Amino acid sequence: MLHTTFQLLKLAGACGQHRGSGRGYSKLAVSLGGVSKYGKHTPIPLTYVLESNGLDDALWTLKATLPEEEAERDKLARLLACDYAEGEDGLVLKSYEDEYPGDLRVRRCIETARRFAVGMATQEELAAARNAARASARAAVRAARATSRDVAWATSRDVAWAVAWAAWAAARKWQTERFVAYLEGRAL
């Protein structure tokens, strides 16, 4: 289980301009009865931040975990990022590979990042995989821009938004479930 404190959140910029003028920090403080009452150094489980503030704030809070939990945090964050990059049931990665058959750079980057998270790959291997995936992503973005212009002309804006919103909501639910599974040690 990972934890933060109000002091760590403050040091990370949660109550300043970096987090929407402190709205998330204030919301968490109110839900815990106030910083003074709860204690600025009292550990706050990230699962509580997720329940109180939602996924975006809980993910952001990863940068403000207790110092003794940083190694666990780094492993969790890397594995979670790999899961998110693959998508639920590997569908995001599969969609990419369907669109770009034979381009295994993204898959290899994810595999290398997973191996690095568990101590089975070097910094050099990780850097090489990251650079290859970035080059692949740039090519995909250029192709997606051209495709999205065509799709925008071919589809009703309202229909496109409804489809995008439904996909986003389903992905968000899955992402939240994965995050909780990692925090509770069920996915490690």
What does this 3D model show about the protein?
The structure is a single chain. The protein has helices at 6-11, 23-31, 35-38, 46-53, 55-60, 70-86, 91-99, 105-117, 123-154, 157-183, and strands at residues 3-4, 44-45. The protein has 188 residues and is mainly α. The chain folds into two domains: 3-65, no CATH class; 69-183, no CATH class. It has a two-stranded antiparallel sheet with strand order 1-2. It is elongated. The N and C termini lie close together (11 Å). The model is unreliable at 151-157 (pLDDT under 50).
Main-sheet strand order equals 1-2
Q: Judging from the principal axes of the Cα atoms, what is the shape? A: elongated
What do the pLDDT scores average to? 84
Rg of Cα set: 19 Å
- Which H/E pattern describes the elements? EHHHEHHHHHHH
Total count of helical runs of at least 4 residues = 10
Q: Termini separation (Å)?
A: 11 Å
Give descriptors for this structure.
mainly alpha; 188 residues; two-stranded antiparallel ribbon; 2 domains; elongated
